[in-house]
Amino acid sequence: MGSGLISLIGMPGGGKSTVGRHLARHLHLPFVDSDHEIEARIGGPIRGFFEAQGEAAFRDVEQDVIESLTDGAAKVLATGGGAVLREANRRALRNRTTVIYLRSTPEELFRRLRHDTHRPLLQVGDPLRRLRDLYRERDPLYRRTAHFVIETSRPSVPTLVNMILMQLELAGVVPQPPAAEGTPPAPDRRNTGTT
Questions:
Q1: Phi/psi of residue 181, each to 5°?
Q2: What residue spans define the domains of the chain?
Q3: What interhelical angle do 157-170 and 16-27 show, nearest 10?
């Protein structure tokens, strides 16, 4: 697990950017969204680039961006939903960062995304079916890449952030908060919840 570099992976609309921002604030680390870095690199929105250049060209840029973002300073990094499709990205994320998979079902994602017109992969006649197909293809890759899997089905963003912090503390990735005076130290439950 990469020291001080935490990455969030998962399906489009799974909350990676929102949770990542809150997590970074808690840990006093910079927050970086790989999609924003890609847009800065290509000089415009991903959707336009995707439509004009195709998915393969987009994935090339994405791979370059992830390579540079995972090779450096401590940060919280939110990745695009398809980042795990390339083995080079999976390897960079798994080996250089502590990877959190925010796992959402296709049905939950559909409820959140059904009015979203900015995600190129969902501009199809049957977005729920598309999400189910994407999930079937990507869930094994997310699981293979992740150090921790966090279910997003019900918890609020603060609850999700607390769940992530607890896993990171138990794994020794971030320091545990000091115990209040007069309370016994927390039991060492390292490895709980890892995958």
A1: -55, 135
A2: 5-170
A3: 60
- What are the tokens at 56? 């393969």
Sole residue written with tokens 């796992």: 103
Amino acid, single-letter form, for residue 191: N
> Coil, helix or strand for 91?
helix
pLDDT in the model for residue 184:
56
Q: To 5 degrees, how large is the angle CA 186–CA 190–CA 192?
A: 105
Task: Find the mean pLDDT for residues 26-54.
Answer: 94
Report helix, strand or coil for 94.
Answer: helix
pLDDT tens digits for range 163-176: 999 999 998 888 87
194 has a pLDDT exceeding 50:
no
Please identify, in words, the CATH class of the domain defined by 5-170: alpha beta
Torsions phi, psi for 99 (to 5 deg): -100, 125
CB 114 within 8 A of CB 13: no
- Average pLDDT, integer, range 41-69: 94
Bridge partners, residue 6, by sequence: 76, 98
